[in-house]
Amino acid sequence: MLKSFEENQLNDSKVLTTEDAHGKSKRHSDTLYAILFLGPSLLLLSVFVFYPMLKTLYMSFFLTNNFGQTTVFVGLNNYISILKSGSFLSSLASTFVYVIGVMVLTIVMGLALAVFANQKLRGIQFFRTIFSSTMGVSVSVSAIFFLFVFNPTSGLLNQMAGLLHLPQLNWMTDPHLAMITVIVSTVWMNLGFTFLVLFGALQAVPQSLYDAANIEGASKPYQLFKITIPMISPSLFFVGIVTLIGAFKSFGLIDLMTAGGPNNATNLLVYRIYQDAFLNGNYSQASTESIILTIIIAIMTIIQFKVLEKRVNY
């Protein structure tokens, strides 16, 4: 009896040992697979994302020479001097005007186009193609197109104004109008993507909701604000986040259309960073501005999540 009990215990311990060995082998196998699949991505992210970010943060605490080599440790003095700089604060204000203008106009116009394209009208497929076509236009082509449109002497707008005996405006040389031109150009570039996202969301809204609203006699504006917008709120939230971050990072159109002018009216933060680093050779100042811009984008994104996510209906 006692011998049988001991044999059973010995067999149980052998089973447990085998299971432990099998579990350890499986964990090692999982770890190996994780390294194989994630390793290349982590390596690329480390080289092209994490290292440049840490290097930029490191350089923001130093003075640098024209070759970008750190020379003197200055701590937070770079941040203090930049935050007291009038030209930096002017660029910051211009950036906020640009970002708010681009974000609001892109979402409103994208939603309007999506609602229109969602109607069952004859030939609506043609308009859907036109509305989404800006996705296939490069930044350089878009800049050339709008330079022809807004050119003060030979631009399309001023020629039409001349034919209608209206005053001709200096779109590219007036500081206030120059900001409008880059905002309009950026909104036009963003419309294709925004339209497609919102139009796809509208396609998923059940028609029965509108049928019920029509039976109750609800007006079209009421249906828009009480049915359409709440039903596509996740897509609107996504578009808002993407547009906000994209507007903060805008560079191509600014560089090709205004180069930050006139009188630094369109010298947004990203373009200012480019000028300080690659034209003026002041890498420490450019690094400091980059860190400040990163913090601003992070704060604005967090505010969007905290404020707008509560209104999203998942």
From TrEMBL:
Pfam families: BPD_transp_1. PROSITE patterns: ABC_TM1. Its main location: membrane. Residues 92-304 form the ABC transmembrane type-1 domain. Coiled coil: none annotated. InterPro entries: ABC_transporter_permease (IPR051393), MetI-like (IPR000515), MetI-like_sf (IPR035906). The keyword Transmembrane applies. GO terms for cellular component: plasma membrane. It is a multi-pass membrane protein. The chain crosses the membrane at residues 32-54, 96-117, 129-150, 177-202, 223-248, 290-308. Keywords: Cell membrane, Membrane, Plasmid, Transmembrane, Transmembrane helix, Transport. SUPFAM superfamilies: MetI-like (SSF161098). The keyword Transport applies. One of its GO terms (biological process) is transmembrane transport. It is found in: Cell membrane. Belongs to the binding-protein-dependent transport system permease family. This is Sugar ABC transporter permease.
